[in-house]
Amino acid sequence: MAAPRMTPDLPTEQWAQVVEETGKPVVYKKIPVRQPGPDEVLINIKYSGVCHTDLHAVNGDWPIPTKLPLVGGHEGAGVVVGLGSLVEDIKLGDYAGVKWINGTCLQCSFCQQADEPLCSKALLSGYTVDGTFQEYCIAKAAHVARIPKECNLEAIAPVLCAGITVYKGLKESNARPGQTVAIVGAGGGLGSLACQYAKAMGLEIIAIDGGEDKRAMTASLGAKHFVDFMASKDVVSDVKAATEDGLGPHAAIVVAASEKPFQQAADYVRPRGSVVAIGLPSGAYLRAPVFDTVIKMITIKGSYVGNRKDSAEAIEFFRRGLINAPYKTCGLSELQKVYDLMQQGNIAGRYVVDTSK
Ligand code: 8ID
Ligand code: ZN
């Protein structure tokens, strides 16, 4: 097999944040830099967003086990520094992104119909394969996100999971321009991006989250209304009251990382409305009254990241300047602090880590 083409003088060791045991703090240490396989690329990750999914992986609270030891992270933006011998459509020096879907078989019926996230052989960045909390990360060339050179790598990092996921979820909701969506968990990482995508898609936004910081942030991102789930005595009637005719929003995009809102959304969407479940709180169940769901013809569905086309579209919204969600940046070495803040629900928007620090 032909050797990969590599940028000269790459290091053989690099800094990474490693989950050695679930439920324990991550360990900042040096690990080897791997060489890409024939269908893979090696990306020098400059910035990576920190998604709540990474915290689920550290906590080990989902039903599918993580690889261990594990390098987490799946919102990595950087520069291509290595190309497997079969890779033809990416060049050394290109900007590229590593997403949650690191690779899929490209052959099964789901891959054939552009439902790659449903592929049973999908490799998941920062979960079943090492992800972006390291300086040099590998992904399958077919799934690497192509990032135009004019994009800022720090600002685009959160688009690579949060942006793609909420853009897909908004499409899955079938809400049309001019209609109203409730974004539940609007003050978090996915939620802040959802506000921006919903605004760009011509939707009116009811943001649901807790606290003054998140109220102010979601208002600046385009939300017309805010329902504070921590202060409200009746979230369902407050959400309905935020719509002009009192019938409730056309869709609810539920990106919260707790169970309760998944049990409320079907009660406030309007007849023919849809509930799109995106957040993945551990051990949680959806709940809806059968009677009302039937006679209001409510749709309840799940939405899981996006396919390669959704990813390219979500990046194009960013390239056109339509997506400006707030983020704070810190060093990769400080990742555990970000997890601690996230666990407490104390992050408005997204944290991005700079892998060089
Ligand atoms: O493809 C997918 N379906 C996908 C992709 C990426 C992430 C799913 N996720 C999942 C994550 O695993 C996580 O479970 O989406 C969830 C949210 O991820 P995130 O946006 O990265 O998490 P965050 O930044 O911590 O934001 C969560 C927000 O939810 C709010 C919090 O205040 C926070 O702002 N929230 C909670 I917790 N309970 C709430 C409630 N009852 C609530 N907001 C409204 N009502
Ligand atoms: Zn994610």
TrEMBL record:
SMART domains tied to this protein: PKS_ER
Domain Enoyl reductase (ER): 23-353
Entry keyword set: Metal-binding, NAD, Oxidoreductase, Zinc
First-tier enzyme category under EC: oxidoreductase
Cofactors demanded by this protein: Zn(2+)
Chain segments annotated as coiled-coil in the UniProt record: none
Top-level taxon in the UniProt lineage: Eukaryota
Enzyme Commission number(s) of this protein: 1.1.1.1
Alphabetized SUPFAM superfamilies for the sequence: GroES-like, NAD(P)-binding Rossmann-fold domains
Sample GO molecular function, one term: alcohol dehydrogenase (NAD+) activity
One term under GO cellular component: cytoplasm
Family: Belongs to the zinc-containing alcohol dehydrogenase family.
Protein name per UniProt: alcohol dehydrogenase
Organism of origin: Pseudogymnoascus verrucosus
Lineage, top ranks: Eukaryota, Fungi, Dikarya, Ascomycota, Pezizomycotina
